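Example 3.2
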Amino acid sequence: MEIIPAIDLMDGQVVRLKQGRFDKTSIYNATPEAMLTRYLDAGAAWVHIVNLDAARGVDSASNAVIESLLRMAPGRIELGGGIHTADDIDRWLSAGAGRVILGSAVAGAPKWAADVIHTFGSDRLVAGIDCRDGHVAVRGWLETTPQTGADLAKTLAEAGFTRAIVTDIATDGMLTGPNFELMKSIARISGLNIIVSGGVSGTKDLETATALEADGIEGVIIGRAIYEGQIDISDAVAHFQHLAPTRTMGGDIV
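Structure, written as tokens:
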């Protein structure tokens, strides 16, 4: 199970939102560099970083901070937020990102999704599927579309994606536990390997995710539960992190 600690950035600061709402923002005193060092020292194979300013189309100091973080951990950061073009993908991969997350850019754009997978490879691109009541939310979660998360996941699998981060916005930042039924459903319908995001509250959620590996759950992103002391990241990595089984597009474990 991939244990993936998160750093959300707004104006260069570490923050957490509740249910994706920018009017419910908690700012943490730790610097992004200190948080990244903590995660690397804990042994996390991946660190999840999101530029919230870029996600909603706002210029900020976060880009410079991200460039600094990428120099600290080349190849170990998955980066999302405001990445909309092939040039954006190339910029961040060249700067040291190990994986780039594509959300709004691939929603409703299957041809472009297939093109960038062909150019950059499925091991370096991750679909970001953010759901509100089962429907895809875009533009920093400010707009909800008619498309369901399951339909988008299936389309992206057909385009060549093999992995998706799925977030249930209702649980994000709430410490109430992830929506595992949604995650399992999307994995089953699409055949994608799913990284769970939103609502992780404690080790019981990591145990649940681990039990669902055969259903296509390969990782868990943890944010607020670390910041507020409900999960010790070093312990979580030591006890849960291992390589998940690989699923074929038909869903078989290999």
